[in-house]
Amino acid sequence: MRNPQLNAAGDLTHLLTLEGLPAEIIVRVLDTAVPFVSIAERDVKKVPLLRGRSVFNLFFEGSTRTRTTFEIAAKRLSADVINLNIGVSSTSKGETLLDTVDNLVAMNADMFVVRHAQSGAPHLIAAHVNRTGRAHVHVVNAGDGRHAHPTQGLLDLFTIRHYKQDFRNLTVAIVGDVLHSRVARSLIHGLTTLGTPEVRVIGPKTLLPTAVQSLGVRVHHDMREGVRGCDVIVMLRLQSERMRGAVLPSTGEYYKHYGLTAEKLSLAKPDAIVMHPGPMNRGVEIDSA
Ligand code: CP
Fold it and tell me: What is the rounded distance in angstroms from the CA atom of residue 185 to the CA atom of residue 69?
């Protein structure tokens, strides 16, 4: 079956997940992003790449970083940006997601940036626009449930490449609530596709997916053992909004075993970098220092 985010020619037409995305496409995105890093320092901050295009931000779930940076990016690429206020939109009156999308397509939307609490919502929209012959409309997943957060994954890959250059000699540890983390899933797919030889996941059994090894990672339940010799440590937030039932004795107990402190960090390589997708809970998964 064809990857739903690629067209018949193999070009990226939607960005839904890093899973199954060819390494060449990921590298092309990272390479394309390089000259834009310094755009904020230029006198002329805008480029006309998306002039005349309309980007609709549909955030059905809270966001600070992703929604804001998509708006900034689209404006710097000269697109018209429409931020739908979901709380007062017609979806709150019972309109279906696809009816909302059809209405916005009729207003000449070219791109939907979608965050949704339900895994698969951006796929549903992409399949709908494909099926209804609106090939000019593109969908970008800005985080769906616990499934995928591909743009966060790309940003994390970009950051790691910036500091470490080559993925093929790295040990990367992802620590914490992997079970509920779309960020972890996307980063694991990206890292393994780009040839990272050792990706570790570290956490208590209750916060790691069953059969997580099938994603190509090593499992550690002891954090000190897991971070030893790492080049990159990625800390995850406890995603209590997605937890069902008691998966932890207490946040204090969690911090004692899995919180990143200077002492635990000293076990990683001396030039190790520490990353966190945010929002960050100081004193829960990471020491405030
Ligand atoms: N990293 C991230 O997705 O943050 P937001 O939830 O603030 O967008």
Answer: 21
